[in-house]
Amino acid sequence: MTAVGGLxxxxxxxxxxxxxxxxRPASIDAVQRAVQAANxxxxxxxxxxxxxxxxxxxxxxxxxxxxxxxxxxRDVDLERGRVTLLxxxxxxxxxxxLRPHGLGLENMGDIDRxxxxxxxxxxxxxxxxxxxxxxxxxxxxxxxxxTGELLHIDETENAELLPAxxxxxxxLGVIVDITLQxxxxxxLQAVERPEPLQATVESYLERSAGxxxxxxxxxxxxxxxxxxxxxxxxxxxxxxxxxxxxxWVDDELLANGLYRGVCALGTAAPAVIPPFSRLAQRLTGNxxxxxxxxxxxxxxxxxxxxxxEYALPREAVPEAFGEVKALIERRGWRISFPIEVRSAAADDxxxxxxxxxxxxxxxVHRYYREDQREYFAAVEEIMVAHxxxxxxxxxxxxxxxxxxxxxxxFDDFLAVRDRLDPDRRFENAYxxxxxxx
Length: 437
Prior knowledge:
There is one protein chain. The protein is α+β, with helices and mostly antiparallel strands. It contains 13 helices and 21 strands. β1 (2-4) and β2 form a beta hairpin. The two termini are 27 Å apart. Keywords: Oxidoreductase.
């Protein structure tokens, strides 16, 4: 999130707004008072996290609640391995907070700048065919409803609301704390290898089901996939972290510094993109190391981009990927950012992109100074044809009518929304589009 002269913008520079009022509550009581005050004046109110969504899901034209000061651990239940975090806690803070208790997250994505409430509310996920998204780790939460009441939801209290509230798009209330079911801290062995693209696509279903965490990237204009396989190991296993210098060269100099320059050059001279992509796939993705899980999951990304990601029935991924590849070749587009392919286990959260089905993900990106609209719209047509569900925090063109058809519990979620926010205190333009009025 950046705010300059009252202007709030998303990290990808896709949305901007000047809120009428910005409040920075540092306590749960202060959040409750802010919502009650908005009710009295008839204003809309939205909580914002780190601004890492590409959609307008957190845009707050009325009252913007910046929860940056509402962070840290509220409670630890060591016997059950559960930790209650205040909503503004950033994912990158969790290793330091959890380490003293010997705990870790069951799974993580590759970006950790988001807040815990923002990441779970938008459906952030990592990869791993047997592991769910971040919201599946929630066993309880507390939120301030649209009427200003404090409501706790867990397996025993208001349990019927949990499948809706875990991944609520910010439409049900302002989350003030979240209780996560953690696991004992662990190591990950990462094996990153360039492999022939066709063979990688053909083995995707087997490897997604058989490996702990498998994903691959494909730079358009090449025939090579950059694969990453992470295997879970106990803390007693031998650590073999990347040398500091080698990690800096791979993750900072090449992946950020050089890549930023090429992306910028490619906007003016697209012809440089294919040869650079072929060079990039030769220079990256060939290493084997073992480290604490967060250091393996997370990649530092400083090159700004825009992203659209679709969740498909997992068995549809190979065919859909092939169609996207053929589309790029047919249109003659010069695409500098790789396509990312991941997976997740089925879950029971009503608006989860993995609700009720084993899921695969295909994500497309463009440099933020390029116009992504034609590319994303054409890819979206392919994804919709395969019953795809868009990531709530990433760019897409879907509306409530089309989304209802792919989410069996869509109307059940709307009923919970009617109950917790009858006056649409938390509504904005994006939520009107994807949920309806």
